[in-house]
Amino acid sequence: xxxxxxxxxxxxxxxxxxxxxxxxxxxxxxxxxxxxxxxxxxxxxxxxxxxxxxxxxxxxxxxxxxxxxxxxxxxxxxxxxxxxxxxxxxxxxxxxxxxxxxxxxxxxxxx
Length: 111
Prior knowledge:
It is built from four helices and three strands. It has a three-stranded antiparallel beta sheet. The radius of gyration is 30 Å and the shape is rod-shaped. A hairpin with a 5-residue loop joins strand 2 and strand 3. It folds into two domains: 50 residues, Signal recognition particle alu RNA binding heterodimer, srp9/1, CATH 3.30.720.220; 48 residues. The protein is an alpha+beta fold. It starts with 12 loop residues before the first helix and ends with a helix.
Protein backbone atom coordinates (compact mmCIF):
# COMPACT_ATOMS: atom_id res chain seq x y z
CA UNK A 1 0.00 0.00 0.00
CA UNK A 2 1.40 3.38 -1.06
CA UNK A 3 1.06 6.15 1.48
CA UNK A 4 1.36 9.73 0.24
CA UNK A 5 2.05 12.29 2.93
CA UNK A 6 0.79 15.79 2.31
CA UNK A 7 3.18 18.48 3.39
CA UNK A 8 1.91 21.98 4.09
CA UNK A 9 3.22 24.60 1.69
CA UNK A 10 6.27 26.20 3.27
CA UNK A 11 6.43 29.94 2.74
CA UNK A 12 9.98 31.22 2.28
CA UNK A 13 11.16 33.33 5.21
CA UNK A 14 11.99 36.30 2.94
CA UNK A 15 8.29 36.69 2.08
CA UNK A 16 7.21 37.13 5.70
CA UNK A 17 10.29 38.44 7.51
CA UNK A 18 12.92 41.11 7.12
CA UNK A 19 16.01 39.84 5.35
CA UNK A 20 19.43 40.90 4.20
CA UNK A 21 21.15 39.75 1.02
CA UNK A 22 24.19 37.72 2.06
CA UNK A 23 25.31 36.84 -1.46
CA UNK A 24 24.44 39.06 -4.43
CA UNK A 25 22.64 37.83 -7.53
CA UNK A 26 24.72 35.29 -9.45
CA UNK A 27 24.30 32.75 -12.24
CA UNK A 28 23.32 29.25 -11.11
CA UNK A 29 25.86 26.55 -11.86
CA UNK A 30 24.84 23.14 -13.22
CA UNK A 31 24.55 21.56 -9.76
CA UNK A 32 22.46 24.43 -8.35
CA UNK A 33 20.15 24.33 -11.35
CA UNK A 34 19.27 20.73 -10.47
CA UNK A 35 19.09 21.13 -6.69
CA UNK A 36 17.82 24.67 -6.00
CA UNK A 37 14.25 25.18 -7.22
CA UNK A 38 14.57 28.96 -7.51
CA UNK A 39 17.22 28.60 -10.23
CA UNK A 40 14.57 27.39 -12.66
CA UNK A 41 12.75 30.74 -12.73
CA UNK A 42 15.46 33.09 -14.06
CA UNK A 43 18.68 31.08 -13.86
CA UNK A 44 19.99 33.49 -11.22
CA UNK A 45 19.73 33.33 -7.42
CA UNK A 46 20.79 35.34 -4.41
CA UNK A 47 21.36 34.08 -0.89
CA UNK A 48 19.29 35.85 1.77
CA UNK A 49 19.45 35.71 5.57
CA UNK A 50 16.20 36.24 7.46
CA UNK A 51 16.78 38.21 10.68
CA UNK A 52 14.21 36.86 13.18
CA UNK A 53 14.39 33.15 12.29
CA UNK A 54 18.12 33.16 11.36
CA UNK A 55 17.35 31.09 8.26
CA UNK A 56 19.47 31.20 5.13
CA UNK A 57 17.52 30.66 1.92
CA UNK A 58 17.83 31.28 -1.78
CA UNK A 59 15.70 33.71 -3.75
CA UNK A 60 15.34 33.97 -7.52
CA UNK A 61 16.60 37.28 -8.91
CA UNK A 62 17.28 39.09 -12.15
CA UNK A 63 20.79 39.90 -13.19
CA UNK A 64 21.40 43.44 -14.45
CA UNK A 65 24.08 42.17 -16.83
CA UNK A 66 21.71 39.54 -18.25
CA UNK A 67 18.92 42.09 -18.66
CA UNK A 68 21.28 44.46 -20.52
CA UNK A 69 22.41 41.67 -22.82
CA UNK A 70 18.86 40.59 -23.59
CA UNK A 71 17.81 44.22 -24.20
CA UNK A 72 20.66 44.94 -26.62
CA UNK A 73 20.08 41.65 -28.44
CA UNK A 74 16.45 42.67 -28.89
CA UNK A 75 17.43 46.15 -30.13
CA UNK A 76 19.93 44.63 -32.58
CA UNK A 77 17.39 42.16 -33.94
CA UNK A 78 14.81 44.93 -34.36
CA UNK A 79 17.34 47.13 -36.20
CA UNK A 80 18.23 44.31 -38.58
CA UNK A 81 14.52 43.61 -39.13
CA UNK A 82 13.91 47.32 -39.83
CA UNK A 83 16.71 47.42 -42.43
CA UNK A 84 15.45 44.23 -44.13
CA UNK A 85 11.86 45.52 -44.23
CA UNK A 86 13.06 48.87 -45.60
CA UNK A 87 14.87 47.07 -48.41
CA UNK A 88 11.74 45.02 -49.15
CA UNK A 89 9.65 48.22 -49.32
CA UNK A 90 12.14 49.93 -51.66
CA UNK A 91 12.30 46.86 -53.91
CA UNK A 92 8.49 46.56 -54.01
CA UNK A 93 8.07 50.29 -54.74
CA UNK A 94 10.55 50.12 -57.62
CA UNK A 95 8.77 47.06 -59.04
CA UNK A 96 5.38 48.81 -58.89
CA UNK A 97 6.82 51.99 -60.43
CA UNK A 98 8.34 49.96 -63.26
CA UNK A 99 4.99 48.20 -63.93
CA UNK A 100 3.10 51.52 -63.93
CA UNK A 101 5.65 53.09 -66.30
CA UNK A 102 5.41 50.07 -68.63
CA UNK A 103 1.62 50.31 -68.59
CA UNK A 104 1.71 54.03 -69.45
CA UNK A 105 4.26 53.39 -72.22
CA UNK A 106 1.99 50.72 -73.78
CA UNK A 107 -1.00 53.04 -73.61
CA UNK A 108 0.94 55.81 -75.36
CA UNK A 109 2.20 53.41 -78.07
CA UNK A 110 -1.36 52.26 -78.79
CA UNK A 111 -2.49 55.81 -79.67
